[in-house]
Write a structure and sequence with these properties.
The chain is mostly beta strands. It has one domain (13-75). The protein is 6% helix and 40% strand. A five-stranded antiparallel sheet has the order 4-3-2-1-5, with no helix packed on it. A hairpin with a 5-residue loop joins strand 1 and strand 2 (24-29). The radius of gyration is 13 Å and the shape is globular. The mean pLDDT is 86.
Length: 78
């Protein structure tokens, strides 16, 4: 039998969002299925975000976050 364990999506988790040419953007999970996209683009997912400056906020389906295509970078206090 296949393991159908549900993956929970937590608030205030920061995701690395893959971009073309091997770059990454970063987004922080907010309430109401929104993600705040940071004003940072990096060559690696190890970049530590120093500022809480956001470029924009956008709605994202939970399927995208549960797929694993956007790796979790860290969890920050809300």
């Amino acid at each position: 039998m296949k393991n159908t364990r549900r993956k929970r999506i937590k608030l205030c988790v920061i995701y690395a969002i893959p971009l073309p040419k091997g770059k990454f953007a970063f987004g922080r999970r907010l309430k109401d299925a929104n993600i705040a996209i940071y004003n940072v683009i990096s060559d690696t997912i190890e970049e530590i975000l120093q500022e809480e400056e956001y470029q924009f906020i956008v709605g994202v389906y939970d399927d995208v976050l549960k797929s694993g295509d956007w790796p979790v970078v860290e969890s920050v206090p809300g």
